[in-house]
């Protein structure tokens, strides 16, 4: 299990290749990548992600550990950035490895659902009109109930 | 204990962290003490359903005990991912 919280960009290709290469006995690798999306008007200048140093790493580790107890996983990787990002930049990625693809897919979805609502990150969007905190969505909280 | 604030809670209160001397037994009692201090606290804590709290970096409820606690954090619902 590897949990990384960093300000700098990450190399999706290198991370995915490295993660897959370390799994000699796994038949399935699933990766998800979160990207800064522009708004409907295309006016997003930047996104600023704030986090709670210390708690962030603990929360992500707990979520990843829980995934490992629920599914038959060879390994889990979570990388989440904080700080300033522009539209199109990668915010975060998760990767799961399992002997079976269903476990790898489900565990990746579980990680994403929990990470969105239980890991202490807050997004602030900057447009020409100023700065706005992104509100948590009801649907994200609802998504936790299926697990 | 240390009280820390994130996102718009930090902006409304105007600081990221402060040391608070308190006899509050629960998070709600601490919130009531802070609210009584100044308008900016009353504004930040006006709607607890819009807030989340962590005690010693563990997400918890507002009725949680503060016994032996070193750090309390207040913030809006998280938006990771």
Quick recap:
The complex is a heterodimer of chains A (147) and B (81). Chain A is α+β, with helices and mostly antiparallel strands and 147 residues long. Chain A has four helices and eight strands; from the N terminus they run βαββαβββαββα.
Explain what this protein looks like in three dimensions:
The complex is a heterodimer of chains A (147) and B (81). Chain A is 34% helix and 36% strand. Chain A is of the alpha+beta class and 147 residues long. Chain B is of the alpha+beta class. Chain B has helices spanning 7-13, 27-37, 39-44; strands spanning 2-5, 17-19, 52-55, 58-60, 71-75. The longest helix of chain B is centred in the middle third of the chain and has 11 residues, at 27-37. The radius of gyration of chain B is 12 Å and the shape is globular. Chain B starts with a strand and ends in a 6-residue tail after the last strand. Classes of the chains: A alpha+beta (147), B alpha+beta (81). Chains A and B meet through α2, α3 and β7 of A and loops of B.
Mean pLDDT of chain A: 96
SSE string of chain B, helices as H and strands as E: EHEHHEEE
Distance between the termini of chain A: 21 Å
- Figure out the total of helices of chain A: 4
Strand order of the largest sheet of chain B: 2-1-5-3-4
Number of strands of chain B: 5
The side-by-side strand order for the widest beta sheet of chain A comes to 1-4-6-2
Please provide the count of β strands of chain A. 8
The string of secondary-structure elements of chain A, in order, is EHEEHEEEHEEH
* Greatest interface by residues involved: A-B, 26 and 16 residues
Classify the beta-strand content of chain A into a percent band.
35-45%
